[in-house]
Amino acid sequence: MVKIKDIAEKCSTSIATVSKALHDSSELSPETIKRIKAEAERMGYVPNANARALKMKKSYSIGVIFSDPTAGGLRHEYFSAILDSLKVEAESLGYYITFLSKTKNNNMTYLQLANYHSMDGVIVVSEDFKNPEVIELANSSLPTVTIDYIYNSATAIMSDNTDGTEKLVKYVASLGHKKIAYIHGENTDVTRKRLAGFYKGMEDMGLQVNSNYLIAAQFHDPKASGRATKALLATSDLPSVIFYPDDISLLGGITALAQMGYRVPEDISVVGYDGVEISTLYRPSFTTYVQNSDALGKEAALNLIDRIEHPQTFIPKVVYAEGHIQKGETVK
Asked: What is the pLDDT at residue 302?
């Protein structure tokens, strides 16, 4: 492995001069810097990451917490798009990401793990935000950014769950639908925000919410949404449109409707959420709300790195990544 000492000997100069050249010191002339850097490149010199971290007092490492109890996990297109965008943006700014994972035999908290690995900051993509370990992390001095959850002490990057659901309700109501059912996700902060948007949209459109039309099911679980659909339709008072917690769950709903002899959208309309790729490939194409997952990941990385590099000017804030309605073909 080529060392700074080797470059110094080759260039007939001191180790200090080589170090200054590699860090573009203003003490040296541009010609000297160019000559030493050219020789270092020719010799195949690679900077030592530990030495760089020690000098800059940063590891250039960002921890990512991703714990998803649903059936989707990393395979779910929404989360994978967020993580990919986050990774691309972080790497473009000179940082790399590492999953901050809890193992069976590891009793350290998230904060302890992050400090143990000398991480500069952490992005919480998906976790139980009421977990004491996550709260400890968000309230600590370690730069932390959360996605879709707000703490007073950390910057939050938010998808517009309340506004998105409200817009969907108003859209289907504008098409003449009044009997609107909602098979929503399990009891999470995201679900609570979407339910608030659902109620707000119904109220603004002068529509009554039928409590029998509200059923809980798992996110990203087509079998669960299929069972919920059959339970919902086991009544004579049928809704004209059914909302689902996400596009994958919508697939389960469409399958269940077909098994029961209903056509989409001729007999019953359906609405999804997320706007994953299958929503445009399936026929009929989904009416859904497209979340801006790329912006969520990018903004998370940008805001975390801004806090890491400018701690004196840090003020916690909430950044919204606005999505849009994909009208599709599943609403009559």
From this structure: 94
Q: Which of 132, 95, 77, 113 is CA-nearest to residue 246?
A: 77
CA 218 – CA 228 distance, rounded (Å): 10
Q: 148: alpha, beta or left, given left = phi > 0 and alpha = psi -120 to 50? A: left
CA 22 to each of CA 8, 34, 40, 44, 249: distance values in angstroms, whole numbers, following the listed order? 11, 9, 9, 13, 54
What is residue 318's predicted lDDT score, i.e. its pLDDT?
A: 93
Intervals of the chain under pLDDT 50: 54
Give the model's pLDDT for residue 21.
Answer: 86
Cβ contact 322:292 at 8 Å: yes
Tell me phi and psi for residue 69, to 5 degrees.
-75, -5
Q: What is the DSSP string of 151-218?
A: -TTSEEEEE-HHHHHHHHHHHHHHTT---EEEEE-SSSHHHHHHHHHHHHHHHHTT----GGGEEE--
Structure tokens at 164: 């998105």
pTM across the whole model: 0.74
